[in-house]
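COURSE: Structural Biology Practicum
ASSIGNMENT: Worksheet 4, Part C
STUDENT ID: 0417
INSTRUCTIONS: Below are two proteins. For each, the amino acid sequence is given first, followed by its structure token string. Answer the questions at the end about the second protein only.

PROTEIN I
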Amino acid sequence: MFKSGEALPGFPGRSKVAGLGWATFSELDAMSYAMASHAVRMLWLNLQDALRLTAVPYLVVQAITIGLPLLLLGSMGTDALGTFEVSSVDESDLETLVMPDNIGMFFLVQILVLIGSIVAGAWLAVVWHRFVLLEEYPAGTVPVFNTSLIFAYVGKLIVIFLCMVGIGLAGGLATALIGAIVPFVGIILGAGLLVVLIWASVRLSVMLPAAAVGYAMPVSEAWSKTESTQWALFGATILIALLSILIAIPGLILIGLIVGVDATTVSVPQIVINVVFGWIFTMLTVSLATTIYGVAVEGRELT
């Protein structure tokens, strides 16, 4: 999956340019493509192991995020094709759900769903990071729920989130003030802020695989480790995002053919399709994070 070594793949001895990382944009493009394609190949060539290692954690995530909301709407009907008719929920049920006496419980359930899905998602990510980086092969169908590593991973997710909130608030305030005076400039600054948030989150993302292998990497180290490859990492992230969009198109078309475009129904085939494609998107993201860590932090060569 990785080839160990000090030099970065394909670009031995490149000198850094302040603020840009590698010397030319053509090299940045090649580096971005190499990392994105490696993440895809890593998943494809280890597909059987990926399914075996991550199926249970991923299904737990889906059970929490899909199953609990469906249980909340317990009076939903179903037809022969397994289509849940959201419109069949009694108005009295909806009124009860959002009444002041129940609104606290409703939000409590949502918070529990959020926490549960994050923890289960971290479980999946830790298992995959350790499989790739440490060649750790868990025995059995259900991977070990390593509490210390998983909660360390969640902790780093919170750190990254708080950093993004700080950047977003500062940038958003400046954008709003300038946009109130010159709206067109505000729009440009808003788009630029989105790019900055993606760029910064990608650079800090190396803290996550580090946590998975048992190393509590500080923000400052994550920032310094990704300095020379920062724009290549950003480019690889954009490529994976574009690939995910392309992959999603057939799924959306398939859902449209099976259940139509009626927003008031949720069918079993639709749920299955969403689960399958969601697993692909999740694994591409985690595989890219693993690749970024291997290249930027450990100095591994891509194969």
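PROTEIN II
(use this one for the questions)
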Amino acid sequence: MRSLLRIWALFLFVCVLAPLLSAAAGDAVSIAIYRGPGVGGAGPEELKKTFDAEPERFSARFVGPEEVKEGMLAEIDVVVFPGGSGSKQAEGLGEEGREIVRSFVAGGGGYVGICAGCYLACENYSWSLKILDAKTKSSKWRRGRKELELGVAEGAGERLGLSEASFVVKYANGPILEPSGSPDLPAYTVLAVFNEEVAENGTPEGIQTGSPAIVAAPFGKGRVVGISPHPEQSESYRGVVTRLLLWAAGREAGETGDEGGGTR
């Protein structure tokens, strides 16, 4: 009798439970968090912790430049480039690695760039990926570090998962964006703006307030999110990053700039 019960239990697992578990795991968004030259701060670990807390929705791992060059992006849905130095991240990837990331997004992958990763996505540097029709307003980037209020753009609350009109997050020398006007790139959609600014170290005053803090745009068949500040390091607003990542993966209802239009 016990033998029959064991066989029956095994049958249930193999034929019923295992496929369900496999399907559930397959539904999780596969994420590569870049951790290599040019990455710094607490952002990568905070991101991993956030994704690991929801294993039914996310499956995240750290990757370096060699893994990118070896083709592992073919196994994932979204790549996240966190804070640090955009130019050093680009240098670590090398020309080959940068082209692989571009091709990944153009082919339908998602890209989320936070602070340095947002610089990396921009159009105006020789080393940048040029997957976002954005440039920095000033070459003087050391604006300082401060908790800053962001304003939610009209109609963007659902995309960000926020009901409030404004929220406060950490800022640390992130890019101050404006359209680059590239004929080869679609316009970005503004999801949040800076309601205030910090302008230390001789950086120009008056250019941050009202400028985009979070933007989203298509690139080829893929989707790009650029985030200047650090919501991933603000416990109350880590959900903003997960919502944007789901959009980048094409997992969320409602479109944001998919047709190449939108506002800037």
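ANSWER KEY EXCERPT:
Q1: The chain has seven helices and eleven strands.
Q2: The helical segments are 2-27, 43-52, 65-69, 86-106, 116-121, 157-160, 238-248.
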